[in-house]
Amino acid sequence: MDRDQVQFAERSAMSAETPFLELLARGATADAYEQPILRARVDGDPPERLAALEHARLLALRVRAELEGRRRREAELSALFETAHDLAGLRDLDAVLRAIVQRARSLLGTDVAYLSLNAPARGDTYMRVTEGSVAARFQQLRIGMGEGLGGLVAQTARPYVTEDYFHDERFQHTHSIDAGVRDEGLVAILGVPLMLGPDVIGVLFAADRRARVFERESIALLGSFAALAAAAIDTANLLTETREALARLESASEIIRDRSAVIERASDVHDRLAELVLRGGGVHDVAAAVSQVLDGTVEFAEVAAAPATALKASAGEGRSVRHGDDWVAALSAGGEVLGALVLRGHPGLDPVDQRTLERAAMVTSLLMLARRSASEAEHRVRGELLDDLIEARDRDPRLLRERATRLRADLDATHTVLAARLGAPASATATFGLDTRTGSDAPGPRATPDARGPMTADAGAEADARRRLWSAASHLAATGHGLAAARDGGTVLLLPLRDGDTAAELARRTAKQLGAALHESVTVGASAPVADLAARPDTVAAAYAEAQRCLEALRLLGRVGEGAAAEGFGFLGLLLTGSRDISGFVRHSIGEVIAYDERRGTDLVGTLDAYFASGMSPARTKDDLHVHVNTVAQRLDRIARLLGPDWLSPSRTLEIQLALRLHRLSSALIP
């Protein structure tokens, strides 16, 4: 191509990008990105122009999707920490509660969200704030303790969720409650308690006008908003008590002013924390900021590193607790303990500073929950795409590529399927004929029923180990532009092959990385490289079956903690691979000798044949070949340098002799 042609191609590419840049600039819908191509086709533009436009469209849509994803994540984090900011600068309790309910509804994507508070004098709970409600009777409901889903939550201090309210018999239905719910048209309802220490002061709800399954992350997120609402009420009560104390105790005005100053300092702390998190700060950044405010050292501690007794007490009470000269504030969300903030060397901490530490723990919990939820959501989407590829149902290649592109994976690249599993070697009765359907475990230890329940205690530990393996594999796949899914009692990965890499090397590297992440052995079997995954999704299922066979071979051979592909098993690889790659086996076993003969015009292959045929006797070999014994020795020395020093080991000689026979057969059968 001459210089003018290059410049013309560059101008064409730049002109192809222009209409899509304009669409990006004005925030056009996805459908609008088809228009430049349609106009070009109508105008009869050449194929090169249409191809350039299509390439520019795909790039623009990818940029648009990335921008939309970032805006969505920013909106979610902003909603969470704006709520924390409102709480820190609390002036109007109703306004803060309305903001909490509005943001809970927005983040969970429900039709309605509402909050009720307990009335101990009347023994019931009443509506305080609603968002999205359209029925007056529903907004004025009073619910007795134990009545309806809300009454049950208020009575038991536990979250409850129903997919279909009117067909759920777990709680007591009353005419007034059912009428209000029916007026509002609600079907699926989630309710979590508002807790102040061990006491329930109300209930926070999220509801849909259609059947819906609320996931564990949604329950935890709503529980975090309930904690914010309870803290808002608690802070409002504290401010009320402070004002009453000012009115009653004029003689204590100096003390009250000091207390107010501390509260303002706490408010400033929360402003700083919210700003820090919205700027993208992490858990350790929050701990450093609180350290400055409290004039001490605040550290983040994992669950295993935190004082167990203090952590349990803090999580149960919802307060920071003293542990020697330290203070421990549990990080919890929806009943799950995520870690702790530990303030070192402050035995005399005043109550307001305790609240500052507690609210810092709350902000940290929200940060960890939000980031974990986003990460787990991406991992689940990656697993669903890989499941679809393995199931090999009729799939539109274009849609598969689009889904993979959103996950930063390229189905047009060459990949390897890897099957990974924790645990001990498989039993001696296991075979290579594995059931690769979803949900069926490969041979290995199984949990068994007992008299106390459906599964033994080992089943819980095994399930936890599988979750940890899936989590580590998902992280590895995400960083390597691949996919991962939990399957058949282990985890399956689809990873791209780097230039110069082999399936066996990738399997060994993956086993090492997963083992280091989990601090225990992980065995990995790999398939041969596969390509055209979008156009031929059935290849993924076949490759997965091959990877499973390699995995079970490793476990049966006692090679737990290793990674290998069929090529690494010698002649056993012929049994493991679905393609029966005989030429690959021959090339792996004696390929160096064959290549040497082809380059030099020698016959080392014939020497090997004669050597093994004579019972590995150099003297009888020289008679068969009619050469001097020194010539035989020189040839054997050359063969040893080509095949490696262990070529005469029993296992290698078996492979070499089998490869020689297969080579002779293939030479005779293929002209």
Features of the shown structure:
single chain; alpha+beta; 6-stranded antiparallel sheet; 5-stranded mixed sheet
Could you write a compact summary of the structure shown?
The protein contains 22 helices and 15 strands. It has 671 residues and is an alpha+beta fold.
What does this protein structure show overall?
The structure is a single chain. A hairpin with a 2-residue loop joins strand 5 and strand 6 (199-208). It is elongated and about 120 Å long. It starts with a helix and ends with a helix. Helix 3 packs antiparallel against helix 4 (93-108). The protein is an alpha+beta fold. The strands form three sheets. It has a six-stranded antiparallel beta sheet, with helices on both faces. The model is unreliable at 4-10 and 426-455 (pLDDT under 50). The chain is built from 22 helices and 15 strands. The chain has helices spanning 3-26, 35-42, 47-88, 93-108, 136-139, 148-156, 175-184, 216-248, 253-278, 283-294, 308-317, 351-391, 397-406, 457-479, 503-518, 538-556, 573-576, 582-600, 604-613, 618-625, 629-643, 650-669, and strands spanning 112-119, 124-131, 142-144, 160-162, 188-196, 199-208, 297-301, 321-323, 326-333, 336-344, 415-422, 483-487, 490-496, 522-526, 563-565.
Topology:
Elements: H1 3-26, H2 35-42, H3 47-88, H4 93-108, E1 112-119, E2 124-131, H5 136-139, E3 142-144, H6 148-156, E4 160-162, H7 175-184, E5 188-196, E6 199-208, H8 216-248, H9 253-278, H10 283-294, E7 297-301, H11 308-317, E8 321-323, E9 326-333, E10 336-344, H12 351-391, H13 397-406, E11 415-422, H14 457-479, E12 483-487, E13 490-496, H15 503-518, E14 522-526, H16 538-556, E15 563-565, H17 573-576, H18 582-600, H19 604-613, H20 618-625, H21 629-643, H22 650-669
Parallel strand pairs: 14-15
Antiparallel strand pairs: 1-2, 1-6, 2-3, 4-5, 5-6, 7-10, 8-9, 9-10, 11-13, 11-14, 12-13
Helix pairs in contact: 1-3, 2-3, 3-4, 3-8, 3-9, 3-12, 4-8, 8-12, 9-10, 9-12, 10-12, 12-14, 14-15, 18-22, 19-20, 20-21
